[in-house]
Amino acid sequence: MLAYVLRRLATMGPLLVGITFLAFLVIELAPGDFFSTLEMDPSISPEMVREMKEAFGYGDPLVVRYVRWLSRVVQGDFGVSLAYRVPVAELVGPRLFNTFLLSFSSMVFTWSLAIPIGILVALWPNSAWDRLLSFLAFFGMSIPNFFLAFLLMYFALQTGWFPVGGSTSLDYDLLSPAQKILDRIHHLVLPTIVLGTSGMAGLMRLMRANVLELLQSDFVRTARAKGLPERVVILKHLLRNALNPFVTLAGYELGTLLGGSALVEAVMNLQGLGTLMLDAVRSLDQYLVMASVLMGSALLLVGNLLADLLLTVVDPRIDFSRLEAVK
What we know:
Blueprint: H1 2-29, H2 34-39, H3 46-55, H4 62-74, H5 88-123, H6 128-142, H7 145-159, H8 177-214, H9 218-225, H10 230-242, H11 244-255, H12 262-267, H13 273-282, H14 286-314, H15 320-326
C-alpha cells in the first residue's frame, strides 16, 4: 500500500506540470491579452502599456515565462494579478475560504440526504413514497440552479427570513466569534440549498438503482438465508457495496470544489472564488487563471488518491498492495 501511495504521489508532479503548461499555452493562444484592452484606451499612453508588459515579462518567450512562473510557484509565490495589481495569494485567500465553506456545506447537505433517501425508496419500490420522492428528484434535476436561486432570493426578499445575497453581514467585523459563525451559517442556507438540490436528486437516483440491483445479488440472498436481521443485511452487507461508486465520485467532487459554485455565486452575489475566476478568464488575467487551474488540478489528483484509498476501506476485495506485487 505504501509503495502504491508513493508511486501515485510521484506521478502528481509531472501531471501538474503538464496540465499547467497546457493551460499556459491555451491562454497564450487566445486572441489578444490583458493589455489589448489597455492599448485601446486613449487615456493610457502606449509607453505606460509597454512598461507594464515589460514589468510582467510579456516580451519573453512563452517557455521562459512559464518556467519563471513555475519556479515562483514552487517557492509559494503565485505571481501578481494583472487586473488587481496585488499578489494572487492575497486575492484568492479570503474568497477561497468562502467558496470552500459553500462547497463543503452543499456536499454535506447533498450526501446526508441523498444516500438514506435512495436506500429507503429502493427498499419500498413503486410505493407512494418512491413515486413522490422520484418525482421530486426529477424536478430537482430539471430545474436550473440559477432559476432556483432567483426563486429563493425572491422568497428571502418577501419573508425577510434569510439575507438576500452576500457571504456575511455588513457589521460582520463587529460581531463576536459565536455571532460570526451564526452569521456565516445564516448566509449559507439558501446557497447550500440551491447548490445541493440538483446534486442530491442525481445521487438519490443513483443510490436507488445500486440498491435495487444489489438486492438481487447472491450475497444478499445468502445473508438473508443465514437468518441475519434485515438491518444487518442492509447496513453491513448491502450498503458497503452500494457505496463504491459514491466513494469514487467523491474524488471528482473534490476537484470541483473551487469552480462548481461559480454560477450560484454570481447570481446570489457571494464573494467567492468562482466569480473571481470568471472575471479573470474574461480579462485574461493570466496569473490568476493559472492559480485557479493549479489549485483545481491538485485537488482533483489528491481527491482521486483519497477516493482510491477509501475504496480499500469500504470494499476489502480491493487490495492495491497486490497490484504493486504483480508489477
